[in-house]
Design a protein that fits this description.
By secondary structure, the chain is mainly α. The chain has 19 helices and 6 strands. The chain has a two-stranded antiparallel sheet with strand order 1-2. Strands 3-4 form a two-stranded parallel ribbon. The chain has a two-stranded antiparallel sheet with strand order 5-6. The structure holds arginine (ARG).
C-alpha cells in the first residue's frame, strides 16, 4: 500500500497512512473549530514551560507571537492547512514550526495530544457556555419586558389543552422567564464544576517536566489543576453535562414554541409572528406559517440526539484515551451552533410579535370560573367536595342544554344547591378570579408584580 506521508509521529512508522484510513481519522475538517482554544492552550502551556526552565522568556515570546500570527491569518480567511494535517493541534504546530523554525517543536514538551485535546475542548465549552448564558439573559430580559409592558391583560390558562383558569398573560410569560433562569443556573453550575485544568496530565501518567500547573490554570481561566491525570484525560462528563444542559435549554424553548405555534393558528389567534419570523407556502397564497417556532421545536430532537450520541460514545470507552473519543467534538459543535441560533430567534420573534389581547379575552369561556364558584360556595360554608359536586352538576347540566353554566337560570342554580346567587353573580368574573390568587407564585396582580421584582433581582445576580 503506497500510503500518504504523515510527519508528526513517523519515527515509529515505515509506511504512511492508507487514504481510506486518512478519510476515517483526519479531523481537521471539523476540529479547526477549536483553533482559538488550541492556540490559547499552547500559550498557557508555554508559560508553564518557562517556569520549569524548558523555554526561555525570549523563546516563549517568539512562540506566542508565532501562535498569534496563525490565529490572525486564520481569521483573515487565509488557507493555512495542508492535506497532511491530521487535526487542528498538529496543523497549528506544523505552521508554527514553519514560521519560527525548530523552536516550534518545543511547545509540545511535556504534553500529549490527550491532555491538549481535553484542555482545548474544555476551554471551548467554557467559552461557549459563557456566550450562551449571555444569549439566555437577553431572552430573559425580553420576556420580562413583554410581561411588564402588557401587565393587566388576561387570557385563558390551559391544562390538557382545555381552558382551565383565567390568568394574566404576564403570568404566562414569567413562567418562561423563570424556566430560562434555571437553564442559566444550570450552565453556571457547569462552569463551576468543570473548572480544572487537564494540562500537565500528559498522555495518562502526568508530565515528567513538572511545572506549576496552578500558574497555567490561572492563565487559562481554570480554577485549579485536575487532581488525577488518568481522570483528566479520560473523562468526558463535562461534555455530557454541557450537552445535557443545552438539550434542556432547547427543550425549554421547544415547549414554549409548541404553545406559540398553537397560539398562531386561526383557531386561537392569540399571536401574530412578524413576517420576518414566518414563511409562506409555495402553493397556498393565504398561508403564513410559524416556521420559526416549528424549527425551534424541531431542533430539540437533534439536541437530544447529540446528548444520546455522546452517552453512547463514552459508556464503554476504556481508560484513559482511546481514539473513539475524537468523536466527542461534533455533537458539541452542533449543539452550540443550534442553541445559539434558537435562542436568538426566540428572543427576536417574541420581541417583534403582535400579541392579540382582544382575541385572548374573547376566547375565554365562562367555564374558566367553575373553580371560583366552587371556592365561593366553600366560603359560604359548603365543604369543598360538596361544592365541587354542585358546580360539576351545574356544568354538566349546562352542557346538556348547550349552554354555559353561567347562562343557566337562578332557579336551576338554586335547584343544584347554590345559595347567595345574586351576590355570586355580581362578583364572579375573570378579573375577580385572578385577583383571588395573590398567593406567592400565583397569577394575582400583586403576585405577578412580586415576580417582576424577583426577576429584576435574579437578572442582577445570575
Ligand atoms: N484529534 C484527536 C482527538 O481529538 C487527537 C488525539 C489523538 N491522540 C492520540 N493519542 N492518538 O481526539
Amino acid at each position: 500500500m503506497s500510503g500518504v506521508e504523515t510527519k508528526m509521529w513517523d519515527g515509529r512508522f515505515e509506511s504512511g497512512m492508507a487514504q481510506s484510513m486518512i478519510d476515517l481519522s483526519f479531523s481537521l475538517e471539523f476540529d479547526s473549530e477549536l483553533i482559538e482554544e488550541d492556540i490559547q492552550g499552547s500559550i498557557g502551556h508555554g508559560k508553564g514551560l518557562v517556569q520549569s526552565g524548558v523555554l526561555t522568556e525570549e523563546e516563549y515570546k517568539t512562540i506566542c507571537n508565532g501562535l498569534r500570527s496563525i490565529l490572525v491569518d486564520y481569521k483573515k480567511g487565509i488557507d493555512l492547512w495542508q492535506d497532511s494535517d491530521e487535526d487542528i493541534h498538529m496543523a497549528v504546530e506544523r505552521v508554527l514550526t514553519e514560521r519560527i523554525g525548530q523552536l516550534g517543536k518545543k511547545i509540545h514538551t511535556g504534553r500529549s495530544r490527550n491532555d491538549q485535546v481535553c484542555t482545548d475542548f474544555k476551554l471551548y465549552m467554557r467559552h461557549r457556555a459563557t456566550e450562551i448564558i449571555a444569549l439566555e439573559k437577553e431572552l430573559a430580559k425580553t420576556l420580562l419586558a413583554v410581561a411588564k409592558e402588557n401587565m393587566g391583560k388576561i387570557m385563558p390558562g390551559y391544562t390538557h389543552m382545555q381552558q382551565a383558569q383565567p390568568i394574566y398573560f404576564s403570568h404566562y410569560m414569567m413562567s418562561f422567564f423563570f424556566a430560562v433562569t434555571r437553564d442559566i443556573k444550570r450552565l453556571n453550575n457547569f462552569l463551576d464544576l468543570h473548572c480544572e485544568l487537564p494540562l500537565g496530565s500528559g498522555a495518562i501518567a502526568g508530565s515528567a517536566f513538572p511545572y506549576e500547573r496552578k500558574l497555567v490554570a490561572e492563565e487559562l481561566g481554570f480554577k485549579r489543576p485536575s487532581p488525577n491525570s488518568i481522570d483528566a484525560v479520560s473523562h468526558r462528563d463535562m461534555a455530557l453535562e454541557f450537552l445535557s444542559d443545552l438539550a434542556i435549554v432547547s427543550n425549554t424553548l421547544s415547549r414554549y414554541a409548541e404553545d406559540f405555534v398553537n397560539w398562531s393558528t386561526s383557531e386561537f389567534g392569540f399571536l401574530t409572528l412578524h413576517d420576518a419570523f414566518s414563511s409562506g407556502s409555495s402553493m397556498m397564497p393565504q398561508k403564513k406559517n410559524p416556521d420559526s417556532m416549528e424549527l425551534i421545536r424541531g431542533k430539540s430532537g437533534r439536541m437530544l440526539g447529540n446528548l444520546t450520541s455522546m452517552f453512547t460514545l463514552v459508556k464503554g470507552a476504556p481508560l484513559s484515551y482511546s481514539r473513539d473519543l475524537q468523536e466527542d467534538k461534533e455533537p458539541v459543535f452542533d449543539a452550540v451552533k443550534t442553541t445559539k441560533v434558537i435562542l436568538r430567534v426566540m428572543k427576536e420573534a417574541l420581541e417583534t410579535a403582535r400579541y392579540n389581547f382582544d382575541k385572548m379575552e374573547s376566547r375565554m369561556l365562562p367555564a374558566l370560573l367553575a373553580t371560583d364558584l366552587a371556592d365561593l360556595l366553600v366560603e359560604g360554608g359548603t365543604p369543598f367536595r360538596d361544592a365541587h359536586h354542585i358546580v360539576g352538576s351545574l356544568v354538566g347540566e349546562a352542557a346538556k342544554q348547550g349552554k354555559e353554566f353561567t347562562e343557566l337560570s337562578d332557579e336551576t342554580w338554586a335547584a343544584h344547591g347554590v345559595r347567595d346567587i345574586k351576590t355570586i353573580r355580581e362578583i364572579l368574573n375573570f378579573r375577580y378570579s385572578i385577583s383571588r390568587r395573590n398567593i406567592e407564585g400565583g397569577t394575582g396582580p400583586d403576585s405577578v408584580e412580586e415576580q417582576f421584582t424577583k426577576a429584576e433581582e435574579l437578572l442582577k445576580n445570575l
